[in-house]
Specification:
12 strands; alpha/beta; six-stranded parallel sheet; 9 helices; two-stranded parallel ribbon
């Protein structure tokens, strides 16, 4: 077996499987079929298939709820990752894992690089960081990719949320949190291209940022981009009035980094990066996402 995907029912899991199955011997497991928190089952499955790569798309990603469900977030994002590390060690499989821009506190004013100090502001970010650190300490062959603002036709994401709210007269959207979104297809294309080129080798093993081309954008500006494209593509007849608001006016019990733009500089030295920015990704994928609301 070339690849085992875990978390196959999520945005990344579904998108990756759909693309990678054309070129590789691959099997994908949903959370209900195989939870990474089940150590014995994880060991048995990885031992059975002995894949060259284990791609972990499983994660607890409910940022707001993680403050109340911190134990569950840690169970999946840390202890589940520990289980995967042990299984990968035994089978000599290389782990490909996805992390988050929320490991940073957002106090930096230029794009984050991999060597920057981490300081998560919320339980979700802290749980993901613990998983990252365990992988780095325990495995020799691994690839951690920090990603942000993922959107696709699958699951729930910001683009789908905006689409569902497109019939509203007025919306208030945060304008002081700056990040860079990426489509799941962009990430899957990156993984597929570099697997085919054998770039996931021991010499390149390590921690990387993985983000779309383009400059940072606020959620407010991103929402304007989504609605503008919906109008251009005939999906809506008018754009809601969008009011920019600071994070402090948004009802949430969670602190989020105000600036979490990631730099691809390290990645581009070792891998082939698709020349694709989030503007083009939204334009190309918008109608497909809309059909899958």
């Amino acid at each position: 077996m070339d690849i085992v995907i875990l978390g196959g029912s999520g945005q990344l899991g579904k998108t990756l499987f759909s693309l990678l199955k054309e070129n590789f011997k691959i099997i994908s497991f949903t959370k209900s079929e195989l939870s990474i928190t089940e150590k014995t089952k994880v060991n048995a499955v990885i031992a059975k298939y002995a894949p060259a790569f284990v791609i972990n798309c499983s994660a607890y990603t409910k940022v707001d709820l993680a403050e109340k469900e911190n134990d569950l977030a840690l169970e999946i994002n840390f202890h589940g990752v520990k289980n995967l590390c042990h299984a990968c060690k035994k089978s000599q499989s290389t782990l490909i894992h996805f992390s988050t821009d929320y490991v940073f506190d957002g106090k930096k004013q230029s794009p984050y690089v991999e060597s920057d100090s981490t300081n998560p502001l919320n339980a979700y970010g802290a749980s993901k960081l613990k998983g990252d650190q365990y992988i780095i300490e325990e495995l020799e062959n691994y690839f951690i990719f920090r990603v942000s603002g993922i959107f696709s036709e699958h699951g729930e994401n910001f683009v789908k949320t905006m689409m569902r709210l497109s019939n509203k007269d007025t919306l208030s959207i945060i304008n002081d949190q700056i990040m860079k979104p990426s489509s799941a297809s962009f990430i899957a294309n990156f993984i597929n291209t570099n697997l085919k080129k054998n770039n996931f080798n021991a010499l390149n093993s390590g921690l990387y940022n993985l983000t779309s081309m383009g400059s940072g954008i606020s959620w407010y500006e991103f929402s304007k981009l989504i609605f503008r494209e919906m109008l251009n593509q005939g999906l809506i007849e008018h754009i809601p009035k969008i009011k920019p608001i600071p994070s402090g006016e948004y009802k949430s019990n969670v602190n989020r980094p105000l600036f979490s733009v990631l730099s691809n500089d390290k990645l581009e030295k070792k891998f082939i990066l698709p020349n694709s920015n989030y503007i083009d990704q939204v334009k190309v994928e918008l109608k497909t996402i809309y059909k899958n609301l």
